[in-house]
Write a structure and sequence with these properties.
Blueprint lengths: L1 H27 L4 H24 L7 H29 L4 H25 L2
C-alpha cells in the first residue's frame, strides 16, 4: 500500500509538471492543445521516471538503460492513450481541454501506468 501511495504522490508531481507545461504552451504560447499535451506528457514522463526509479520503487540499483527502455515502452502507450483521449474528449464531446486532460490522466494513471510500472518496469 505504501508503494501505491508513493506512486500516487509521484504521479501528482509529474502531473503538475505535465499540466503546467500544457497550460503554459496553450495559453501563453498559443500552441494547439494536442501538441501542448504532447509536450506536457513528455515533461511529466521524464519527471515520473526519475521519481519512480529512486523514491517510489527503490529501483536505483537497476540498470538505467534497461529501466529506461521498459519505461519508454509503457510511457509510449500512456502517451498515446493521453493524447488520443484528450483529443476525443475535447473534439468530439466538446469538453474543455483541461477537464479532458484531468479525466484522461486519472484513468490512464490508475488503470495503466501504476500496474505496468510496478510489474514490468521497476520489478
Amino acid at each position: 500500500m505504501l508503494t501505491f501511495l508513493r506512486s500516487q504522490a509521484a504521479s501528482l508531481i509529474a502531473s503538475g509538471v505535465d499540466f503546467l507545461v500544457t497550460i503554459f504552451a496553450v495559453e501563453l504560447l498559443g500552441i494547439w492543445y494536442v501538441a501542448a499535451t504532447v509536450l506536457g506528457t513528455i515533461s511529466g514522463g521524464i519527471t515520473h521516471f526519475s521519481i519512480g526509479r529512486t523514491w517510489v520503487f527503490h529501483a536505483a540499483h537497476g540498470a538505467i538503460p534497461t529501466q529506461a527502455t521498459k519505461y519508454f515502452l509503457v510511457w509510449s502507450g500512456s502517451f498515446l492513450l493521453n493524447a488520443s483521449g484528450v483529443f476525443m474528449f475535447t473534439h468530439y464531446l466538446g469538453i474543455n481541454y483541461i477537464f479532458s486532460k484531468v479525466t484522461i490522466s486519472l484513468l490512464v494513471g490508475f488503470f495503466y501506468n501504476f500496474i505496468l510500472q510496478k510489474r514490468y518496469v521497476f520489478n
